[in-house]
Fold:
Amino acid sequence: MNYHRYYPVDVVNGEGTRCTLFVAGCVHQCRGCYNKSTWPIDSGFPFTQELEDRIIMDLQDTEIKRQGLSLSGGDPLHPNNVPAILKLVKRVKTECDNKDIWLWTGYKLNELTAKQQAVVPYIDVLIDGKFIQELADAKLVWRGSSNQIIHRFRLHN
Structure:
């Protein structure tokens, strides 16, 4: 998996203070996308074990209390990204007490393959659906267009 940006402190992409990872690779290529540079699967930088370890350490940091991890892109559920994303979310749930995970994907929940579905049990909030420019609304929270659905699987304690 490749990634474009990692923000160890982010207050824009989800509730509370978070760590946010923008991955590479998106097959949806929505018109009006604000993150077109992330579309090519081979763009950005390799996602390394060192970066994964840093994310875990940042989430465990007690000086800057973070509510959780946000995964965006590109598309974290791009088929090429799923193995690394699954490993990361499992590790967050195992090693980072009470941290929530938010994930944005252009796929709809009911369209996910079995491999993509394997990630869902580890996600607290999933925002699904392609960005549709004609349905864009700047007043929406956590999503760009009104067709996108916020699925809350678990409430953060």
Q: What stands out?
A: The helical segments are 49-60, 82-95, 114-117. The longest strand covers residues 2-10. The mean pLDDT is 93. Strands lie at 2-10, 18-23, 45-46, 68-73, 100-104, 125-128, 149-152.
